[in-house]
Amino acid sequence: KVILPTTVVTIGKNAFLECTALKEIEMIGVRSLGEAAFWYCKGLEKAAVSDELKEIGKNAFGRCDKLTLYCEPSSIIEAYAKSYGIKLGALYPEKIKLSKSSVTVEKGKSVTLTVKTTPSDVYYKELFWSSSSDNTSVSSKGKISGKETGSATITCLSIFGGAEAKCSVTVRTP
Fold this sequence. Notes:
By secondary structure, the chain is mostly beta strands. The protein has one helix and 17 strands. Helix 1 links the parallel strand 7 (68-71) and strand 8. It starts with a strand and ends with a strand.
């Protein structure tokens, strides 16, 4: 996996030409892709590109048959991918839905929420979980533990894009 610093704004002509070992690249700060920049990178499966990209050279991703381009909706890269028949994925979730909008948990017990993102095929999958109260804790996997009697709101937030979902939690004494 190659992560280009956001200070890299241009990828020149033939820059990664026939780089068959390249599997994944993040190029969030790139504004210009040269002609055949990734030509025949037959191992390239994922490329994440932001809407800062404004210029794409001819055959920039030519013959990258396994490639999915992850981009923002209505971006130039989305139009490019559609015109060349390249698979598309979203950079981050537009919506998050939790398995429950409210839950009751006994003190000393736990319950785990599951998450569904829309769209489901996103590049940045990282979620941040938090609780509004010390009477509950929540893990990075959505496991809510009841610590003290009371109520709280659990928030699940997409680190990229800002989509969020909430669940009301009541902790009761067994």
